[in-house]
Design a protein that fits this description.
GO terms for molecular function: ribokinase activity. With about 300 residues, the chain is an alpha/beta fold. It has helices at about 40-50, 65-75, 120-130, 140-150, 170, 180-190, 195-200, 240-255, 260-275, 285-295, and strands at about 1-5, 10-15, 30-35, 55, 60, 85, 90-100, 105-110, 130-135, 155-160, 175-180, 205-210, 215-220, 225-230. About 35% of the residues lie in helices and about 25% in strands. The chain starts with a strand and ends with a helix. The chain binds adenosine-5'-diphosphate. Adenosine-5'-diphosphate (ADP) binds next to α8 and α9.
Length: about 300
């Protein structure tokens, strides 16, 4: 099984002709309200795209419509939501402006996500999991507790996004680190090619996956050759959630005992297919769809 500890946000997305400057008001169009947040997106992907038994640990606003939207999306994908706490704060909200060339600017109001904790009753669930998956849109102390729970035998996968400095006590527990290129530079504290960054990060953690958008991903593990896994060529229309689909499907494949390089291959397929559809959770492919691609 997979336990995802992370954020849940409602995404308010609006198309804009260009991004506004400070002090400026512009008109956008086509407002959408869709379920998002890195944690919830990855939980949906692990369940729908990965076919895993998934539990989500997070927080949404009590009695608010946005919280209902998120819980419904998680449950529809088959994710267990009983450890989701109901906060007096509003459900997290992401304000997203998208230009025609697909460039996003995003402002996140964390709200209930700032109260995500691992309750005593849930701690046991983490210990029993095959994989614990976390990101950095929740308090770092909660990420630390999730990381420590791995000592019961789970594999701890950390998607260090959005990037922020990682305390040593978290890094020490990471089994697999997943980062995109900017995050890789931030965590490594240096510049360099994806290969150089993966090698530098591999000194800190036993396994590293650096995602490269349309170019797929680089996988580095200690005492093994670095490998490059290509992504299939697709016509990308909206890359929102591609990185999250990648992480969720990767975690599910690892929980099923798949080796890292094969898990990354399936994760690349999931990321690429997600980029061909708009939205985050709504764009995640099913496990059957991914199987079909594998056979093709
Ligand atoms: P993030 O969205 O977190 O910055 P990436 O852009 O690296 O992460 O995308 C994550 C994964 O999604 C990639 O490793 C790749 O598998 C897939 N992906 C993203 N964009 C594309 C694309 N344009 N074509 C094919 N695959 C893509």
């Amino acid at each position: 099984s997979v336990v995802v500890v992370g954020s849940a946000n409602v995404d308010l997305v609006v198309d804009v002709p260009r991004h506004p400057r400070g002090g400026e008001t512009i008109l956008g169009e086509n407002l959408r309200r869709t379920p998002g947040g890195k944690g919830a997106n990855q939980a949906v992907a692990a369940a729908r795209g990965g076919g895993a038994d998934v539990t989500f640990v997070g927080a949404v606003g009590r009695d608010d419509d946005d919280g209902e939207l998120l819980l419904a999306s998680l449950r529809q994908a088959g994710v267990r939501t009983d450890p989701v706490s109901l906060s007096e704060l509003a459900t997290g909200t992401a304000l997203i402006a998208v230009t025609a060339d697909g460039e996003n600017t995003i402002i996140v109001a964390p709200g209930a996500n700032s109260e995500v904790t691992i309750e005593d009753g849930t701690a046991g669930r983490l210990g029993e999991a095959d994989v614990i998956l976390a990101q950095l849109e929740i308090p770092l102390e909660t990420v630390s507790s999730a990381a420590r729970a791995r000592r019961e035998g789970a594999t701890f996968v950390l998607n260090a996004a959005p990037s922020r400095p990682l305390p040593a006590d978290v890094l020490e527990e990471v089994d697999v680190l997943v980062v995109n290129e900017p995050e890789a530079r931030e965590v490594a504290g240096r510049e360099g090619s994806p290969d150089e960054l993966a090698a530098a990060l591999n000194e800190l953690v036993p396994a590293v996956v650096v995602t490269l958008g349309a170019d797929g991903a680089v996988v580095a593990r200690r005492r093994a050759d670095r490998t490059h896994v290509p992504a299939p060529k697709v016509r990308a229309v909206d890359t929102t959630g591609a990185g999250d689909a990648f992480c969720g499907v990767l975690a599910a494949a690892l929980a099923a005992g798949t080796d890292l390089a094969d898990a990354v291959h399936r994760a690349c397929l999931a990321g690429a297919l997600t980029a061909t559809r708009s939205g985050a959770q709504t764009a995640v492919p099913s496990a059957e769809e991914l199987d079909g691609y594998h056979r093709a």
